[in-house]
Amino acid sequence: MFKLSEIKELIKLVDQTSVHELEIENEGARLLIRKPGKTEVVNVQAAPITHTYSPAPVPTAAPQASAAPAAQPAAQEAPAASPSKENLHSITSPMVGTFYSSPSPDASEFVKVGDRVNEKSVVCILEAMKLMNELEAEVRGEIVEILVTNGQLVEYGQPLFLVKPE
């Protein structure tokens, strides 16, 4: 087992070097220390992913060539739906792992649709290699949609929550 003083010393050493990640196993206990700078890129990459899904309804209006007046209102409705999605912040997964919506199977969920969160609110746990990692919202606002289910395997950069920022 690691002592708190040893962990603090290791964090200082990692912080002072160019090492981005340190993993140590000692007597069955495993410690993983990661510098936080690497996960910020995920939010930038996730934005185009959400936009690529919104144009999908547009090709379905194209086969109705004989009903040209009917196709125009449908095309006008599709852009009206996408601006609301553009105003939402996507909380994405910083790693590959298993998504858990609560701290334990018998506990209540961290957040539900309609809940208000702030930058430090824990929204879920991601399990990777038997390590439980709490994921914080990093934005102040209201949870609009939860995009994954409890126990689901998630990918790096996958959107997990949509938040309407304040």
Give a quick set of tags describing it.
four-stranded antiparallel sheet, alpha+beta, about 170 residues, single chain
Q: Would you mind describing this structure in some detail?
A:
This protein is α+β, with helices and mostly antiparallel strands and 166 residues long. It has four helices and ten strands. The strands form three sheets. The chain has a four-stranded antiparallel β-sheet. A four-stranded antiparallel β-sheet has the order 7-6-4-9, with no helix packed on it. The radius of gyration is 21 Å and the shape is globular. Mean pLDDT is 75; it is low at 38-83.
**Poorly predicted runs of 5 or more residues:** 38-83
- Seen as an oligomer or otherwise, the chain set is single chain
Average pLDDT number: 75
Order of helices and strands: HEEHHHEEEEEEEE
> What's the arrangement of strands in the largest beta sheet?
3-10-8-5
* Number of separate strands: 10
Q: Helical percent range?
A: 25-40%
Shape: globular
In this structure, how is the largest beta sheet organized? 4 strands, antiparallel
Summing up helix and strand content along with how strands pair, one would put the structural category as alpha+beta
Furnish the topology, listing elements before pairings:
Elements lengths: L3 H12 L5 E6 L2 E6 L5 H14 L3 H5 L6 H19 L2 E4 L4 E4 L15 E2 L4 E7 L2 E6 L4 E6 L6 E2 L4 E7 L1
Provide a compact summary of the structure.
Helix content is 30%, strand content 30%. With 166 residues, it is an alpha+beta fold.
